[in-house]
Amino acid sequence: MTIAIVDYGIGNTFSVAAALQRLGADITITSDASIVQQADRVVIPGVGDARAAMNELRLRGLDTVIPLLEQPVLGICLGMQLLCRNSEEGDTQCMGVFDADVVRFDGPLKVPHMGWNTIERTVGPLFRGVDQGTFMYFVHSYHVTRTEMTVALSDYSGYFSAGLSRRNFFGVQFHPEKSGAAGARLLENFMSL
Fold it and tell me: Which residues are known to be catalytic?
């Protein structure tokens, strides 16, 4: 099984690659649309600015390829947000896989939301063996509100979507590659989909 990690010049590509390799995955870091299309699994990592990230995906032609993929796809942090309809960050039109909007945190707590926080009300195969109330590692200033596609919640100035799922597409707002054994279990679950 080959996992393509989408390289669009932004993000935590190498830490995600290292986490998957520790689990025995055969990974390819690529910005080549044809390689992405042929991979058994696709991961969209992400740390950074939504507008810059979407510009890079468009330059590589990946913004139109990714939404049509039929194999399991996992967006991590910004990668999940880019799979949504649009983002308040830079008023950015994203890929529209998830019918949801990305908004900035608006509350009394410090932004960005950074550090360990629990995930709750987890459902679906991505969270198999991950206990309710498990701590995962977050770093983000923008979030997706609760939707019918929400498969995990976290609370920071109110509940937000810590996980999304639609058909073969999955997204997590936290960083599984930085979340210890629970994050590794989630990545293993993705590899077994």
Answer: 77, 175, 177
Q: What is the pLDDT of residues 139-164, one digit of tens each?
A: 999 999 999 999 999 999 999 999 99
Residues in the chain: 193
Sequential DSSP letters for 21-63 = HHTT-EEEEE--HHHHHHSSEEEE---S-HHHHHHHHHHTTHH
Amino acid letter, residue 102? V
Summarised one tens digit per residue, pLDDT across range 31-68 is: 999 999 999 999 999 889 999 999 999 999 999 999 99
pTM: 0.97
d(CA 10, CA 107): 28
DSSP string, 56-89: HHHHTTHHHHGGG--S-EEEETHHHHHTSSEETT
Instruction: Tell me whether the omega of the peptide bond preceding residue 45 falls within 30 degrees of 0, making it cis.
Output: no
| 40 exposure class (CB count in 10 Å sphere: 0-12, 13-18, 19+) | middle
